[in-house]
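Figure 2 data, in text form.
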Amino acid sequence: MKKSRGVLSLVVTVVLIGLLGFTAAVGFGKSHTGSAQNIKLGLDLAGGVSITYQVKDKNPTDEEMRDTIYKLQKRVEQYSTESSVYQEGDDRINIEIPGVSDANEILEELGQPGSLYFIAQKGSDGSANYSQINSTGDAAQDYKLDKTIEELKEDNSIVLSGDDVAAAQAGTREDKQTGMRENVVSLTFTEKGTEKFAEATRKAVEAGESIGIYYDGSFASVPMVRSAIENGEAEITGSKSFEEAETLASTIRIGGLKLELTELRSNVVGAQLGEQAISTSLKAGAVGLAIVFIFMIVVYLLPGFASSLALVIYTGLVLVILNAFEVTLTLPGIAGIILGIGMAVDANVIIFARVREEMSRGKSVRNALKTGFQKALSAILDGNITTLIAAVVLWLKGSGTVKGFAQTLGIGIIVSMFTALVITRMIVFAFYAVGLRSEKLYYRPGKEHGTIDFLSKKKAFFAASVLVVVIGFVFMGVNASKGSGAFAYSLEFEGGTSTNITFNEDYSIDEIDQKIVPVVESVTGDKNVQTQKVAGTNQVVIKTVTLDLDQREALNQAMIKEFKVDEAGITAENISSTVSSEMRQDAVIAVVIATICMLLYIWFRFKDIRFATSAVTALLHDVLVVLAFYAVVRISVGNTFIACMLTIVGYSINATIVIFDRIREEMHYKTKKTELSEVVNKSITQTLTRSIYTSLTTFVMVAVLYVMGVSSIKEFALPLMAGIICGAYSSVCITGALWYVMKKKSGTVSAK
């Protein structure tokens, strides 16, 4: 790179940092477009809308309630992936949607959940099932039903129900004949729905009839059938506006519920975490980043300063992208960002460790930089792509907090690869081009350390891991036998009691945390109390573990004594878990698919199934160890639990890939006289510094969050810290040894 280009690169870097900083801090225009303050925050950070529905049907079954809750969960995720749906009492369903403040708008867009039917125009005896009551019009409201739903069901005139519709989406397209833009609603049917609709449309085409879409007591649309539809996809045309098409699509989406619902109440609720929790988390993030910057500069000198500038750009880009794609940010989302920062630091550590190696061999600064980036490329790409595969699968197959975590993780991975491989490279070579070429700025000679014999201790490492896992299972069994549960499940997993209290004064979120929550904790014994303030009122919703009648009465008396509350202003209902069994199943399926995909990718890249097998075994090890930590320490297992476990999986696989990449490289130089154990020990030793430094920087980020955060943040950060330590241990002590054992058992090893 010429000096002029180096100067230009540095100017571009400074301008980019200034522009991203201004965008994140201030934004553009009156609406402050792009600023961090405009990032959509989840219910825990910013509040949102709470809607309660009453089931119209009498005595709904548990299966019907679960099915309706799960389908509603899928519906409301169009507003935010962090939305939650759970049961309240025996026949109520509560929906919480973060990042919005207009309950009426949500209710209007979501629609009134009810039954949806696709009805044939005529019955089996040729009589009309519905007729047009206004011959001068052709709108859906100009039609009426001539028979009851029960009669239509008996006659098999209901060709489809809402259960048979997989998706409904509004859009616009160009009419091939007229060239005009028209509004359409695109439908996708389930496998059974496809068969039913194919048969129904064939009959309708032969008879020249329509199929009416009947919803909640009236017709939503009565489209004529122009051709038999056998591929499971259909379009409804005729909407006068896109808004009308969107309303119809929303109606069809919401109509596939097993139960009919009616709105009982809707409220705007405040954040579950107070401003203090958010501000301390932001300060902790800034302090953590500052410590990482100082560490990188002290250890890696000028390249460390370049990586620090790249990390500033990384942070700015992530904030801008969160804004641009309207990603809802919650605590699990923050976990994804932390993992992204860890991987961004990791990429730089891998590069500069390689540069150091090259300079220690006598290469010039320029050649060492060039070779270092080249040799680090495969490890960075493989590690990041493997984790990105997991993020994509989790986003496609997961729901709720899993989907939100996957979004921020995916963004973080892509941006971290860009900043490490493009921005850091540009800045480092720009420094060199403008004259900063002294070897002292890039390399500090140190003592050469010999190869550490890790494999000689493999039995001790394996035994220690097995012991920790066994201890975890023992604690789970003991806790379960005592009736306290294998884990300390929070209300997100186990359900609980929601108590609505009307106070005599308007408490802020921070005042609720400081004054009310301690009283609730002392009475209930629950250390994971969740609170929400109903906007515009003195009402506070307090969610705890399930309380029996005595505990409810004790809580009521405590509120009356401490805050002079009128007992008539206290109501309580049991609520179901916000993480439904279907959502848990989705999470498990997503993790299994992601693991298989990672295994296949590692197998493809390393051409050796033993690399993939040992990597996945190490992942299982890390998960079991952290589960043991949850069981022993009795940390609350709630919404952040899933994100925590996924973060550990992503972190662990990335660390493992780096060591495997070095083993693969060393195998190319292996001779017949070289022992396989020597190759493995050498590879682990060469990457040991990277493993320590990356683990340390990520640990520092989370540790500062733990030290400065409030109780809910601490419960989130503590298992993450344990997972980081475990991930570092398994990547250094377990994975290489596992591969070695499998390689030796498979037969002799020859040089490649």
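Caption note: The chain has a mean pLDDT of 82.
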